[in-house]
Amino acid sequence: MFNYKKMNSKFFFNGFFVTGTDTNIGKTIVSAVLVNKLNANYWKPIQCGKDEKKLTDSQKIKNLLNLESHKIYPETYVLNNPLSPNIAAKKENVNIDLEKLKKQKIEQNKFTIVEGAGGLLVPINEKYLMIDMIKYFKLPVILVAKTELGTINHTLLSLEVLANRKQQIKGIIFVGKNQYDTIQTIKYFSKEILNCEVKVLGVINLVNKINKNNIIEFGNLIEI
Fold this sequence. Notes:
Blueprint: E1 15-20, H1 27-38, E2 41-43, E3 46-48, H2 57-65, E4 72-73, E5 77-79, H3 85-91, H4 98-101, E6 112-119, H5 130-137, E7 141-146, H6 151-164, E8 169-175, H7 180-192, E9 200-204, H8 212-220
Parallel strand pairs: 1-6, 1-7, 2-4, 2-6, 3-5, 7-8, 8-9
């Protein structure tokens, strides 16, 4: 296992790190909800690919919430291909360096929502996984998970990784229809088997063409 003591991180600020059990699971919408609810700033350090309108996640959140530019920190790395960061970077001869992230000036007195790329074990370069970047930031994690079939396995696997790495978990936000039995199963086994009692922060059911009113409504369904 990677030795975190060798990581020279003095990069401290207040916030949450938003990650997911999979890609395209709703991390950006959840991040927008948290930014709006907590009046926080937003940062996506690594962007891989853009949407059909050629927008990055930072641009989507800025437009969706009508935010002033200073509330969105620029991406440290913007890569063209919608691939895992290590592969996308390699295709462009880019080396993703965690030390470079410290050059971003983060307001210490403002809460910041940091959004990851992909899931916890996606590689960001030849040495580090996304979980390593989370440890580097020393931020509590909010895990975004779907409610559809398969989520019990994906969510418990993600929680096991976080627990094994002794990572602080703020809670889970589920995206989709409220499947009570599924959510209770995840809560039960995370506590009884993984010894990792987690809080469900809320369940939001996404709609087509999300606007700011939807973001506000979603925020009312989440307890932080």
